[in-house]
Design a protein that fits this description.
The protein is of the alpha+beta class. About 30% of the residues lie in helices and about 20% in strands. A hairpin with a 4-residue loop joins β2 and β3. It starts with 5 loop residues before the first strand and ends in a 15-residue tail after the last strand.
Length: about 220
């Protein structure tokens, strides 16, 4: 497929449920920590629903639609760090481990989140269906998201890269700064090392990049509904 075989728009009502399904399935299958801990669909559903409900009215999250089927094939969930999502579900031990890891990345960097409204984006989740890999969708979602956010006044983006593919992408396209990183095998939680046997990926990292350095889309045309 070519880039013209897809259309890109802000997350909307028509694709809310497809976005939820895509995020859950891709996260379970490909995200290193979720995959290693064998996170279940049930454990993920409440979290993803809550995240999307919070992100939806902010109109910062983008999706990719396959024009031939009108099905959602990729999604990137972004929020304003000033009004960020605070997950209320911590009952699952797997979620406690994952969020403890992510929160540990911010140690000594808590100040980065002390920002004004509409200045700092936070990338929460990005998912591309497997059959649509290597089609440039991730790059396109970053492009549209950055260009649109800059129009709203945003200047930077922050996030947690949990696999080597995300880190390589960021190195290639965003001129990012790695603020902190934690080796999975060395991460301690309640006197144990839950990721000591995680071999596929080396570390998780906290990243930060200026939107001004990300290439803008060639045509200033957006589907906003």
């Amino acid at each position: 497929m070519k880039d013209s075989d897809y259309r890109f728009c802000l997350l909307n009502d028509d694709y809310f449920m497809q976005a939820k399904s895509c995020l859950i399935k891709v996260f379970i299958k490909n995200e290193p920590m979720g995959k290693h801990l064998k996170l279940s669909e049930h454990e993920l559903t409440e979290f993803v629903e809550g995240l999307l409900i919070h992100a939806f009215p902010q109109k910062l999250s983008w999706i990719a639609i396959d024009k031939s089927t009108e099905k959602l094939v990729a999604v990137r969930v972004l929020t304003d760090a000033f009004n960020d999502y605070s997950p209320s579900i911590r009952s699952s031990e797997n979620f406690k481990i994952i969020f403890n890891f992510l929160e540990s990345l911010y140690i000594n960097h808590e100040h980065i989140l002390q920002v004004k409204k509409a200045t700092l984006l936070h990338t929460w989740m990005t998912a591309v269906k497997e059959e649509h890999h290597q089609k440039g969708l991730l790059k396109a979602l970053f492009k549209h998201g950055a260009h649109w956010a800059k129009k709203q006044g945003f200047q930077h983006c922050i996030g947690e890269a949990t696999n080597i593919h995300n880190l390589n992408f960021l190195k290639k396209y965003t001129q990012f700064s790695e603020l902190n990183s934690i080796e999975y095998k060395k991460f301690a939680y309640n006197n144990s090392y839950p990721f000591q046997n995680l071999e596929e990926h080396f570390e998780g990292a906290l990243y930060y990049y200026p939107l001004e350095y990300f290439p803008e889309v060639e045509k200033d045309i957006f589907a906003i509904n």
